[in-house]
Amino acid sequence: MKIFPPIHPDFQFLLEFKEQEVISLFKDLREYLLELYPESNELLYHTHALTAVFSISDKLSDAFCMLPIYTNHLNLGFNKGTLLKDPNKLLTGTGKLIRHIDVKNPSDYRNPKVKTLIQEAINLAIIDMDKPTKSVGKTISKIKKI
User: How far apart are CA 135 and CA 57, in angstroms?
Assistant: First the structure.
């Protein structure tokens, strides 16, 4: 059994205010992303949504995907989603770059089509990175203490 880094206490505190079903989906999807790219850094934010961002460096600009958690749901977001090949039309959204997949159950992301999208997003982030990073596999909280 693979052991994943624990959820950062700042994030965990805010996560506990969410619905149990959303918490379970977040934890499973987080583990899935860490399985696919264990070297990713997890950047944590609390703005309009509680969000875990997965990046190949310690910079938001090098992120390949994110998990914004809203009141009753979460998404699997792709920071450069408009640049990804999406022959199955899985991605939704109208922004200049960001696209997402609505997550209601594990089958929404634990499937070969989404795995291919995630791997493509990782590859794009690696190719697009400005300079090599020294941060690997870290959790970085940007959450302001209450």
Answer: 6
What's the one-letter identity of residue 109? Y
Sheet bearing 74-78, strands edge to edge:
99-103, 74-78, 63-69, 50-55, 41-46, 139-141
Q: What's the whole-model pTM score? A: 0.93
- What pairing do the DSSP bridges indicate for beta strands 139-141 and 41-46? parallel
Please report, as a single letter, which amino acid is at residue 39: E
Q: Which of 27, 5, 23, 4 is nearest to 14 (CA)?
A: 23
List per-residue pLDDT tens for the chain, 146 residues long. 678 899 999 999 999 999 999 999 999 999 999 999 999 999 999 998 999 999 999 999 999 999 999 988 999 999 999 999 999 999 999 989 999 999 999 999 999 999 999 999 999 999 988 776 677 888 889 898 65
Q: What are phi and psi of 53, to 5 degrees?
A: -110, 135
